[in-house]
């Protein structure tokens, strides 16, 4: 994962771009029918069940739109919520609350859905050593939010992007002329550029596992699209030489069985690309 300072900059970019996209030259509806000096209060109402995520982000959005908006938090990120719960109250200028409303809801609904699914997957792995990882299969432009939601749900973040970890996959291997060639070239490149980043290598079969292990400096082996028997064999072959990760179409019906094969991590794109938003509303309080 990228450093916190860089992550914070990603969040700032997301907020600035989203407000630019949504508000533009002005919220003409609010400007036309609500006096500039009018103040009000609204509540974030839950109309679903799951894990809430995005409370801290909502506070950042409100502060960006209007530093004088006040947020009273009743439920924090990572806590379970049910229908009828109130997560927070926000008070201040009515126009400011309305400008921030859609971004807050869009972000929190999606983040909560991701956190809820991640927590569900983690529950399926209870009693094993295996942790759930996200992937780069995220919504363009809001990756930081989606990966943050995975953490809130109890999962772990894989690499953030192409620049913070080396991941040698099948196409890299084929284009480079083989596994050993790809690893050798990668280590030479990292040394030349003075880069201290980890190397993951994907294996398509047990023979490739053996070849990867014949090279030093690999942090984790991606055991991709293996069946259960071959996954167990791969884990036995690798031992404690490096970490292990299973991936490839793993879902709620199969994740436990792969964990029981002994892998350290299971990566799932479904955490971020196949979720249904949690139903939340921002309602004015009279």
Automatic annotation (TrEMBL):
It is an enzyme of class 2 (transferase). Keywords: Glycosyltransferase, Pyridine nucleotide biosynthesis, Transferase. One of its GO terms (biological process) is NAD+ biosynthetic process. It comes from the Bacteria. GO terms for cellular component: cytoplasm. The keyword Magnesium does not apply. This is Probable nicotinate-nucleotide pyrophosphorylase [carboxylating]. The gene is nadC.
């Amino acid at each position: 994962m990228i450093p916190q300072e860089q992550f914070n900059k990603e969040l700032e970019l997301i907020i600035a771009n989203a407000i630019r996209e949504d508000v533009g030259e002005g919220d003409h509806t609010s400007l036309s029918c609500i006096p500039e000096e009018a103040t009000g209060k609204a509540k974030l109402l839950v109309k679903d069940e799951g894990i809430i995520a995005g409370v801290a982000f909502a506070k950042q959005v409100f502060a960006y739109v209007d530093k004088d908006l006040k947020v009273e938090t009743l439920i924090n990120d990572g806590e379970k919520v049910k229908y009828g719960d109130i997560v927070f109250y926000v008070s201040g200028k009515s126009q400011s609350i309305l400008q921030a409303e859609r971004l807050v809801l869009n972000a929190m609904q999606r983040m909560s859905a991701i956190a809820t699914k991640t927590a569900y997957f983690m529950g399926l792995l209870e009693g094993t050593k295996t942790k759930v990882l996200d992937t780069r299969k995220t919504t363009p432009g809001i990756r930081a939010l989606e990966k943050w939601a995975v953490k809130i749900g109890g999962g772990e973040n894989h690499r953030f992007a192409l620049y913070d970890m080396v991941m040698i996959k099948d196409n890299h291997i084929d284009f480079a002329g083989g596994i050993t060639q790809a690893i050798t070239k990668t280590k030479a490149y990292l040394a030349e550029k003075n880069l201290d980043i980890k190397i993951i290598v994907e294996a398509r079969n047990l023979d490739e596992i053996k070849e990867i292990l014949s090279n030093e400096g690999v942090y984790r082996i991606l055991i991709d699209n293996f069946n259960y028997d071959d996954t167990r064999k791969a884990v036995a072959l690798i031992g404690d030489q490096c970490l292990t990760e299973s991936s490839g179409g793993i879902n709620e019906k199969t994740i436990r069985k792969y964990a029981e094969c002994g892998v350290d991590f299971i990566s799932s794109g479904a955490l971020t690309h196949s979720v249904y938003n949690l139903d939340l509303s921002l309602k004015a309080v009279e």
